[in-house]
Structures are given as structure tokens and as C-alpha cells.
Amino acid sequence: MMKAMKKALCLLLALALTLALGACGKGGEGEEENNDIQLSDELSGETLTAGDAADKVFSLAVDLEKSLNPITTTSTLNQNVDNLVYDRLFEVDENFNVTSRILEDWYYSKNDNGGGTWILSVRDGIKMHDGSTLTADDIVYSVSRIATSGSTYFQQTGRVYCSAFQGQVYLTGDYANGLLPQRMSIPVIKQVENSILQNTPVGSGPYVFSEDLSCLEKFEDYETADTLPFDKVYLRPYTDPEGLITEYESALVDLVLNDPTSIYNMGYGGKNETRSYATTNLHFVCFNSRSEFFQYDAYRTAMSWIIDREGIAEDVLDGHADAAAIPIHPNSSLFDKEAADEIAFDPDRCRLELERGGCRDLDGDGMLEYALSGTKKEIEINFLVCADSADKVAAARRIASDMEAVGLYVHMREMTWKEYQAALRADPDAEDEEDRPEWIWDMFYGEIFMASDWNTLTLYTGDWEKDGTLNYGKWNVPELQQAMYAFIGATPEERPAAEADYLAALRQTTAFLSVCYEKKQVLTHIGIVKGINPNQFNALAGVANWQVNLG
């Protein structure tokens, strides 16, 4: 039985290694408690501790059959290793604060027409692995290749325009963005001919690849080389999913990443130290503007109080998420707790708002009805969720149960990914009657990787078919779009007022509701490493501050 389960998990990991995105800041031993370290209760064989380390060296898994180029690789394993080899333009920590080792200064300039440009000054004397010095042109080259090489980082950065003049770098996006650095935690490589096609281009990080790719070697010209915990980090070639599990459980690989809320959750056995870190993977509920029921503002607004976000994050997702009633992570300094508390879980408030909107139990059956054109109308809500994720199904069912408790009948539509996508995209107004769906979804439970400037435009702007957005609800609310642009484009002085306007516009429209942000994990064996302070963009952040005991 256990063997069969392990083989199934291995197959899931194989998919994860090809589909998942790789996830900068500093941390020390004194910050260890902030990393949500937990000891796994699962025991597989003997407990491994520092004294039991198999080879007395620190090793990471690497897929040598795929590129190690930090910009073009699609391997999660390789992206993790690359964190030790390449500096990032900006480092974005667990709390979404921005720092940079390679920049001296950066500031945001807005013009009279509302456009905005970031001006970056490159720090003097940053040594690269070939002995050269990092330049503004290297940064421009790296940023430009994100957009033109099919890099997985493009999902994070979006379209960014970059140029250099007199040693400074100029960054702009498709719109004014005062939070653009939070999107730009991207690796920087040296600009040389065809370096984007090289397997291991020149970088400036704390370690450098050995010629035979058997290990990473300390870069002696790195700023804090004397405090780096390893002279060498050994690379264990990835062979297959089961091999990676075995090598980790045997302590031949010393650190692995895990996504506990996805279908790729491996549930590594053995006694582990588990450090959870925040992500911008947002769970949300979106409404359909063509819904017979939710076309009315009052009924969508009422749903603000029926989502038990804390319960979903802690109970349904086993603590592997951070509840968020607004689409800004609670770790961020921009998170408005007062605004979030205004729409905290309150079923009585939800029912009150429904009744204010005209819903009543008109026939005494305990469920609400409403009058439509003078006729009593039964309420039946089609709630769509992808059945491929057990966690999302459980979260959606929790919401549906609470909705029914206040008198709303909910028809759960749990579908495979293909069916789920087809239902979201179905056109009830199709010219050919045969193309019209038998039913129309009223709300759906979804997940989106959010850029950390908290841009939610894709959920309620454009057209999914023409523009590639996720606006399946066919929303068109210019006031909300304008408020979003004003919030993102604001200067620090303008932002508090702009954020208040944006959150007010969200509440007034209620095209979607935030539920929670997922957490991911870094796993190590007990007592091997202290001082790890992982974040979404770099699970190995602050390596110079680690304390290591390999026995």
C-alpha cells in the first residue's frame, strides 16, 4: 500500500518538476521563528539528524538534462540552484520589501502626463565571475531577454521596457507603475554574444559553477565571501522523481522545495524542519456579470461576508495559506487590515444584506427567494470549481455550505480542468443555439499567480479570448480599472489615498472576492541548517547568514 502511494507521489513530482515556477532578502538566526519552522510528524525509517548526514557535504539536486541558464530554464531544480550563482536585479523578501545588492539607488519619476519611469543607479565595483565588472548594459540585456526568450519570469514581470544611459538604467512598463521593482526579482547575467543561449552564462552571485558541473564553488570576489557557509555546494544529478525522494530521505540531497496545497504535494517522509514562506498565489471567487442572480450589485456585495477565509486557510488548507479579504498579502506593508476586517466572515451580515436587496423566504422552506418582474424566483447558484485540486474543491464546498446556511441553494459544479475551462468560456449568447451552454456559471473558485505589485486587472478587464485575460465574467467597469491604475501608478506620497479609492471601488463592484494566499515550503533535515530565510523569489536567500552543521 505504502509502496503504491509512493509511486503515485513520484508521478506527481515528475509533473511538478516540469510545470512549477522557481521561487531575495537576508535573514539571520535571530529571525528563525518568523519562518514558521515545523517538525514533520511523519516518520519514515530512522530519523536523520546532522550526525547522520550521509556524505558530510551540502548538496542540492540539479537536472543536467535541462539548461542551467537562469533566464531560460524551466526546471524548478535548476532555478533553485541558480539562486546561489546569479544576483537578482531586486531582492523581494518575505514581506515584499525591496532591496538590491547590485544597485546603489533607485527612484520613481512621474511626468505631467501621468507616465512613470524608474531610474536605477548601478553600484560600482560589483565583480562578475569572469573578473569583469557588472554594468548597466548587463542589466538591460537581462531584462530584455526575459521578454524575448520565453522565460518563465515573464509571467512575473510582464512587458517591461529597459534602456541605459550614462551608467543608469531606465525601466518602464505598459503603464505607470510605482511598484515595478516588486515585479523585478529577476536574475542578471553578463551581456556577451549569445549568452542567453549558453548553459551557464556569467553571473555575479556568491557561487560559480565548476567546469564539470559537479558542484558550485565559492566566488572569492563576492562581497561577503568570508561568511559563506560552504566552500562548495555539491550537485546531485536528478534522475527521476523516486530517485530524488530517496536521495533526500538518505540525506544525499539536503534541501528540497514542496508545494503543500497543490496536487504535486510530495509529503516527504522522515523528520524534517519545514520552513513555510508566503507566495502571491491568490485563491479567489469570481462572479459572472451575466448571472441571473449576481448581476445585481447588492447580492454580490452580500457575498463579501460569507467567505470564512480564516477557516479555509487554517482548517481546509491545514495552515498552508494566509487568509486575505483584500487582494494584497497580509505580510505587505500595503495591507489595509481595517479594510479587510470590514468584510470579515459574518453570515448574519450576509443574510441582512441579501434581505436588504429583496431576498426573503417567501414559502417557508428555509431557503431564500426573490421577486423578479413581480414573480417569485427560486435562487439556484451554479458554483464552478476545478475537481483536479482536492483543496480547492474542499474550500469551495466550505463556502457553498455557508451560503446554504443563510438560505442560498448552491449547485456545486466540480469539473475536470478541461471541462472547467470550457464552462468558464461558454457563451450563453452564441448565435448558434447548439453552442449555448445548458447552464450558466454564477461564480467560480480560482487561483492566480499575482505579481507582487498586486495588479488584479486580468480578473475584470479585457476579453479572455482576444486579450488573454481571465475576465471570464465579462466585466467592464471603467471606474475600477481607473482606480487600479491610480493605485499602481502612485508615488509613495499618493499611494495611501489611491489605495483607499481602489479598495472602495473593489467593494462597490465586487467583481471578485479574495480568499487567501498559498504558502510553500523549504524542507531540510533536523539540525542541518539554521538561518534560512526563504521567500517566493529565492528559497535560498541570505545564504551568507546560514549556520551549517553537517556532523
Q: Rough shape?
A: globular
Helix amount, in percent? 10-25%
As a whole number of angstroms, the C-alpha radius of gyration is 25 Å
Structural class: alpha+beta
- Helix count from the secondary structure assignment: 14
Care to count the β-strands? 23
Mean pLDDT: 88
Euclidean distance between termini CA atoms:
35 Å
Biggest pleated sheet: 8 strands, mixed
CATH topology of the domain at 279-518: Dipeptide-binding Protein, domain 3
Quick overview:
Helix content is 25%, strand content 22%.
What does this structure look like?
By secondary structure, this protein is an alpha+beta fold. The protein has a domain at 279-518: Dipeptide-binding Protein, domain 3 (Roll), CATH 3.10.105.10. Helices cover 25% and strands 22% of the residues. The strands form six sheets. Strands 1, 12, 13, 14, 18, 19, 20 and 21 form an eight-stranded mixed β-sheet that branches. Helix 13 (478-489) packs antiparallel against helix 14.
Give the helices and strands, then pairings.
Layout: H1 2-19, E1 38-39, E2 59-62, H2 76-82, E3 91-92, E4 98-99, E5 103-110, E6 116-122, H3 136-148, H4 154-157, E7 160-165, E8 168-173, E9 207-209, E10 215-218, E11 232-237, H5 241-249, E12 255-258, E13 272-287, H6 297-302, H7 309-316, E14 321-323, H8 337-341, H9 347-356, E15 359-360, E16 369-372, E17 375-378, E18 380-386, H10 390-405, E19 409-415, H11 417-425, E20 443-449, H12 464-467, H13 478-489, H14 495-509, E21 512-525, E22 529-530, E23 547-548
Parallel strand pairs: 2-11, 18-19, 18-20
Antiparallel strand pairs: 1-13, 3-4, 5-6, 6-8, 7-8, 9-10, 10-11, 12-21, 13-20, 13-21, 14-21, 15-16, 16-17, 22-23
